Amino acid sequence: MIQIDDAGSGSLIGGTGIGILDTRNNKYYFEIIPLEYYQTELFYQKAYQDYVVDIIKRGFKKINVTKDREIEVCQGYMFDKLRDWLSKNDYNWKSTKIEGPLQHKVEESFNQYVINLGLPKAFIKHARYAFGFHRLLKWVFADLDNRQKLCKTQWKSWQKWGHIEKSIYKNTLTYQDYCLKCGKKIDINLDVITIEYITNKPATINLHKSCYKGQLNQVPPIFLHDLCLMIKVRKKIITKLNPKSNQNLYLKTKENKVNILDNRGEILGSLNNKLGEKLAFWLNKGFNWHCILKDFSDNNFLVLAQIKNL
Length: 310
Ligand SMILES: [Zn+2]
Fold this sequence. Notes:
The chain is of the alpha+beta class. The chain folds into 3 domains: 2-117, Nucleotidyltransferase, domain 5; 123-211, no CATH class; 222-307, Alpha-Beta Plaits. 27% of the residues lie in helices and 31% in strands. The strands form 4 sheets. Strands 11-16-15-12-13-14 form a 6-stranded antiparallel beta sheet. Strand 12 (248-254) and strand 13 form a beta hairpin. Helix 2 (47-62) packs across helix 3 (80-88). The radius of gyration is 27 Å and the shape is elongated. The model has no long low-confidence stretch (mean pLDDT 91). The site of zinc ion has 7 residues, from strand 10.
C-alpha cells in the first residue's frame, strides 16, 4: 500500500507538509509546500493543490511507486487536484482516512520543520492543541517583525487578527511566566514588557525587557476600555442609591484595591480580583474611567465604566 497524508494545513506557522509512505518497505518521502503559496495571490488560486501534485511526482520517483500499486489518499481538500491527476494517469487509488504510522510520521516531520523555523520544542511537545491559531498568534506577536514572515498571511484569520491594536507597556511581573521571545523563564518581580490585546478573548504576553525592541503603546488594553463591573454593597447604602438617577461614580485605588465611590465620597464597594489589579495599575498611571450606576437587585449592583482620557 502507498499512503499519502498532510500535516500543518491548519497551522498559522509554516507551509504544509506532505508525506508519502510505502507500507511494504517503509520508504518515506516528505516535502513542504512553501510559505509563498500562503503569502501571495497564489493562495487564492489554490496553487498549493498544484504544488501537491509536483511533490507527489517527485516522491513517487524517489521511492519508486509504480502504477500497479494501491494508493490511499487522505480525504482533505489539499488533495483535490492530486485525485484528478491520479485518475488521469491510471493510478489505482481511493480516498480514505489515514491513520497509523504515516499520520504519526507526517506530524513528526512537520513538528521538526516548525521547530527549525524557531518555534520552541516545548511549545509543541507538551500541548494537545499545539497548533491552535490563537496560541501560535501569541508566539508571533512576541516578535512580530520577524515572525510574521513565517505565517500563512493570506489567511482570513491573519488578515483579521494579525495587526490588531495592542497595549505594550513596562510592567513588573507578579507571577512566573515564560518569555515567548527567548523561551526562557521570567522570574517574579522582574521588570518586563507586557503586551495585551483581545481576539476572541483577552491575551497577555510577557517578555524580558531586553527581549523587546519595538515601540511601546502605554495605554490600557482595549478590553479595559468598556467595562461592566458587578459589586456587592451593604444594605444600608443601597437605600440611599437610586438606580434611575444615573448618578456618577468614581474609581479610586487604595493599596492595589479599586474602590467604587459615589459622588459624596462614600465607598460603595471594591474590586480586589484580577480585574481590580489591572484597573489599579492603570488608575495609578493617571488613566480614568467614567462610571455610571446602571442597575441593582438585592445587594448586587452594576457599574458601567468607560475610559475617559485616551
Ligand atoms: Zn526573553
